[in-house]
Amino acid sequence: MAESNAIESFRDLVAWQVAMDAVDSILELVAREPLSKKYWLCDQIARSSTSIAANIAEGHGSGSRRMYVKHLYIARGSLNETLTFMEINRRQKYATAEDLRTIRDLLHRTHKLLNGLIKSLQRKDIP
Q1: How many other CB atoms are found less than 10 A from the CB of residue 7?
Q2: Does the residue 65 lie in any domain?
Q3: Domain range holding 67?
Q4: Phi then psi for 38, rounded to 5 degrees?
């Protein structure tokens, strides 16, 4: 019997899975010193990064293609916000280059997946 590629849950979306991998890496990073001592920054990073996956999930469950796309755009905005916080970390030397590279790679992959999902949902020929 062939495997089904049907998306039954937001958990089946590769964009959500990769966004969650990024959240795991980010939350691990903000728990370490010296970044953990920068509460305001840690809070902002945690909020923006978790918002990416949360908006993908919320959009998927919205029941409307228009609302789904809207939430994917919000997720993309949160992703850009998170990338900005990663740049602050780089400039302030709160994290190693390797830590930031791993996170940026995950965020860039999520960005590409979000763009593809948005494009596919905006196609007129799909129900």
Answers
A1: 12
A2: yes
A3: 12-122
A4: -100, 75
Residue 7 lies in a domain: no
Reported as type and span, the H/E element at residue 31 is none
Would the CA dihedral through 28, 58, 51, 104 be positive or negative? positive
- Inside any domain, residue 48: yes
Secondary structure (3-state) at 13: coil
Q: What is the CATH number of the domain that holds 42?
A: 1.20.1440.60
Number of domains in the chain: 1
**Full DSSP string of 69-88:** HHHHHHHHHHHHHHHHHHHH
pLDDT values of the chain reduced to their tens digit, one per residue, 127 residues: 344 567 789 999 999 999 999 999 999 998 988 888 888 999 999 999 999 999 999 999 998 999 999 999 999 999 999 999 999 999 999 888 888 999 999 999 999 999 999 999 998 665 5
